[in-house]
Amino acid sequence: MRHVSILLQTVAKQFYIQNSGFFLLLLFFGIGFLSGKEHVAIASSVAQSPMLLLYTMIGWSIYLWATFRFSLEAFSSKENLWIRNVIFYSSREQWNILLTMQAALSAPIIAYGAFTGIFMFKYHNWINLGTLLSYICIGSVLPVYLYRKHLAQPISNTRPNRLKTAINKWIATPAWLWPLSNLLHTRLWLYLATKALSIAVLIAFQVIDDIQVYDWRWQAIGMLLVSMANITLILELFKFHKQSVPWMINMPLSGIKRVIIQWSGILLLMLPEIWVLIRYFPSERSAELLLSLIIYGLCIGLSLFASFFIFSSEAEDALKKYFYFFISLFLLSLFGVPVILTSLLLFAFTFTVHILYYRVNLD
């Protein structure tokens, strides 16, 4: 059905694109970091332990909540008001369309659930298997039921919070805080999920390095992964500058002020990771390496931000380029190129794009 295809393109595909950093980390740990034997061992443990299955379902529930929130935001956007026409179809067609969309969003859970279910069947653990199947069925049907209720409701204009309005009148938010403030207001769940994952990965790299001593390349690869995980958040910062405040380019601001307004958002975005890196950094490592890694992470974020001015404001148009960008930086670290040298190259690229962008637009 054509409506199913359009809905998949509008909601499911956009969800995976906008959370590409999250799935990049999952692919790295699921394919590049763990071997097939380790995957089998993990699935076998989950299949035999009700407690591990419970923890797994808690993680899946967080993921399902993220897909649910994303879908509601997509349904409520002005560009997607046509989706509300789905409610005029028969109940059977509504369920078919929305179940297909939810199945696409829940594909990672369904795939891994099927993989784990094979071991539950192998070990004759019917209670865990029944619990797993029930969870997957409820996780697919319940969101669709809520989607139908949401689509059937009239669009209402939400009244602004009086307290927030008063605070905004009393305290003027500085311009350099606008991008991050907008991100926290509009994509809070994306921000929290991304930060939770990136911080967990960063802590894991520090703990593993503290137990089993590696050379500096291990730390560089960890910082690269964590920085790339923020690509969707950096894209949101870029969209704010490009779509919400395009008039700022015509403001009589000095070059330094323009740099502060644009680049401070990246620094604020990376502050949680920087704090965690400093907090859990192995004491045997040098302070020079710590400083180099912080600069490296910030330069990766700045270069990603600058690249959107060149490639496209839409992530899907340049997704392959960012994958090649990640592979290039990964290989540079693997072959021992100092992170400070890579940082200088990334910063030179960022600064060049910044200068050329304003020169072209102001001329």
TrEMBL record:
Parts of the chain that traverse the membrane: 21-40, 52-75, 95-120, 126-147, 188-208, 220-238, 259-278, 290-311, 323-356
Record key words, sorted: Membrane, Transmembrane, Transmembrane helix
UniProt key word Hydrolase: no
Record carries keyword Membrane: yes
Identification of the protein by name: Uncharacterized protein
